[in-house]
Task: structure prediction
Amino acid sequence: MQEKLNMTMKCENFVVNAIGRRVPTIVNGQPVIPYKGLRQHRPTGRKYAPPIPTCIDYPDDGNKVVSSLAEAFKRCGLKDGMTIGTHHHLRDGDLVNNTIFEIAHQLNVKDLVWAPSASFPCNEPLIEHLQNGTIHHIEGSMNGDLGRFTSYGGMKGCAVLRSHGGRVQAIQDGELKIDIAVIAAPSADAFGNATGAEGDSACGVLGYSLADMYYADKVIVVTDNLVPFPCMPFQIQGNYVDYVVVVDKIGIPEKIVSGTTQVTKSPDRLLLAEWTAQFCVEAGLLKDGVGIQTGAGGTSLSVGLHFHEQLKKTGQKARFGFGGTTQYLVKMLEEGVLDYILDAQVFDLEAVSSIKRNINHIDLSVFQAYNYHSKGNYTSMTDIVILGATELDTQFNGNVVTHSDGLLLHGIGGWQNCLHAKCTIIPVPLFRDRIPVIVDNITTLCGPGELIDVVVTERGIAINPLRTDLLDKMRGTSLPIVTMQELKEEVDAICGVPNKAPISAKDEDTVAIIKWVDGTVIDSVRKVLE
Amino acid sequence: MQEKLNMTMKCENFVVNAIGRRVPTIVNGQPVIPYKGLRQHRPTGRKYAPPIPTCIDYPDDGNKVVSSLAEAFKRCGLKDGMTIGTHHHLRDGDLVNNTIFEIAHQLNVKDLVWAPSASFPCNEPLIEHLQNGTIHHIEGSMNGDLGRFTSYGGMKGCAVLRSHGGRVQAIQDGELKIDIAVIAAPSADAFGNATGAEGDSACGVLGYSLADMYYADKVIVVTDNLVPFPCMPFQIQGNYVDYVVVVDKIGIPEKIVSGTTQVTKSPDRLLLAEWTAQFCVEAGLLKDGVGIQTGAGGTSLSVGLHFHEQLKKTGQKARFGFGGTTQYLVKMLEEGVLDYILDAQVFDLEAVSSIKRNINHIDLSVFQAYNYHSKGNYTSMTDIVILGATELDTQFNGNVVTHSDGLLLHGIGGWQNCLHAKCTIIPVPLFRDRIPVIVDNITTLCGPGELIDVVVTERGIAINPLRTDLLDKMRGTSLPIVTMQELKEEVDAICGVPNKAPISAKDEDTVAIIKWVDGTVIDSVRKVLE
Result:
């Protein structure tokens, strides 16, 4: 693996894919499949099959505790070129990810692949390990400083960005083989059963590590709260765990979950939220039994509040709310306007506490919520999702990872997965810092326009022409229904047509690829010129 | 597959295995591995990898309901020689298993393999389908009439008996490939999420179907209680389900779970229970934090009651109780002498109701509890298990499937798995119906004597000589400590040395094999001569 990584170009054999983007067919020495269009790529073959373990190799008393993470890595046979899977449930309070690569560096291991379910600003120290050769490339999100570093071409390999569902699909399908998974756990027992619901570093759930638990060859649980066997109710099953490491602190509690999540106070954003909610009511989307995902951004939260009020007013009840959980969703559950919270990650303290006390606050895995290589998933059964975007074009194609300056500053998260909902609504301002959000050519194409149904801006609401049903329903509304072209002209009149970002045109300057939910490559990201 | 099954002998190439039993190395045309001794067989290779599915092939609205089970079978491509996996949570009230093969017969499908997690007397009608060629053989337990039929050589193929953990191991390892799993579910939604906790046919949990859910190529959920999506809290995940079938009735409630489980009233059995409990106390086994499995037999339940009293009296607390759950275990939990019920199957109504109301009554899977090809499992961490046996020899080897008359009347259940506990105690009467339980040569060897620690009879308690620690601890006890040889002599003096059972001595008369927890063949069962 190592030789292969070093000997090959980051990306080779470029083609134009089905949505008109230039993408490589070889990435980090491995073949990849260009995007073929919606519902066009049918996987062949079988799921990844981890080696069969035996109880012979594990202690009868169930005590898998070893003295340190370095010791666990040695026993796992950590070596050059391996892939390390981690989760992001500790969010910006995570103290484990940086430690992993610090240890790998001390052990003089090179060219590792880091495959986190997401990265956060706190992971900035990993730039050093990308520079000193410990990490070859990242398969995961590239937020903030890591993104800037990647955009300027600092990474040895090519970054691979996947949605939350895409990561699970890739691990399940053997496209992303996790050699060693490290699962930071707020509470765990010596056998490796673990939960995120208890402990000083409580983060609620650990569902993003389930794929790693099932499919990684070796699994290490790292905890700062060792409890007597059995750690119940389990979220991680010790039967899949090789070693348990006890450390002083896995995270900084106040950075793991916000004390509270807050709705926006910006009058512009409040208007977007109000219009979005009104749209959902008038289009008949917000109905009894509705399934919703509103997310945790300030605007989304405000939309959620409107939904709450509306349901209460009409005596209706939402069936399920899912995605990252906040105090607002918990309030809906506890006030009886919502039957179930289906929880894949937790954003605030109230949500952490709720998962322990509310039986209808359910720990849902990413396999269930988002995996496209599954016998169906929850996204296509969700009635309304509210998402963001950094850029949209007049064909409703969306970007969520780069900004118009070309910098890769965000992960895909569940965005691509959620696009499969029955109605995808993106409330966005027409421009940010005088840079248009609606443009002719988006910097990076993360989601095809066919899946984006409604764009709500402060100057009007554009409905995708493919959604003739919605256009029909909104005839005669008092809401300002416009076209994307009109929005584009309006923003150009305000901001001027934007300059092209200073991005390299060369194939060899590809710094990252964007995978679609089916594992194909929907776009590539080029180096930003300094 | 079909041709192979028909063309080969049931069993071929016999050898004597490491525990001295004559076993085949080819069964139903497939190679099998003879038992190598405890902790000697190390698996190679990888887990079974099911085909990768895609959401493209499943309805966006999540509605997988088809008109009938026959229709579901057609869509699954049911054909000759396939293996059908089912669970036994509906116990003797099951109405689904017989229907499956009735339909297969009507569809003129032949030579199916039935792989249930257990069978019950209610499955007697399947004898017809074993006779008419619909079912080639059974991989699972052979209770009552099915066992008698098998013992007299009625089955076309060779039956394969596995423990509960062994079934999961075999499915996981690809040794037992489930083509189509049929999961009878007391409640389910149209997407296939299902639970055993709710509905007229409630059976508590559905954990025995998890292996089928994960590894079968096609999965059908059959329910008599279709609920709105999402059916929560889920035990079966719709993401693994192909079709949902709604029928009038999946089971007969009063036969699914007993209204109540009852302790023994027999004075002899009460004595065994009392001595067993006293032994555990005096040997220091019943201590604070103890993990126990007492089972649901009348004697076991009585042992459990003694444990309850003893813990209460001494102010100690058991950490976990597992195995089949009864009202008595629920009472321990609710009276605070037990921290957790780890539940793999439910035996009575009180246990069904408890799983809904007690957060510390946990739905534990067979993967977690019993799978030997796992990174450890719960059995070796359990302090005390109380088991039964049909026969024991003076080397402490045990039989749990056949009687001294050679008839195969019981499944292995969790028996082999539980032998791995820290202390395995078997309370048995010295004889039943004047037939000795302790014999020179057991009819079928299901568990090696090294793992059976204590045998409690009405004439004394034998401690395995390997357990010098227990022998030491019990020095000076008032309990009658004896040797197995003494017990054997005593029973022979009462009953006379038993006649040899009328069993065929011919290899070609092998009707069943017994797998060990690691997938090797520990013994074979010969035809009973009429």
Notes: Confidence is low (pLDDT under 50) at residues 1-7 of chain A. Chain A has two domains: 61-139+176-256, 267-495.
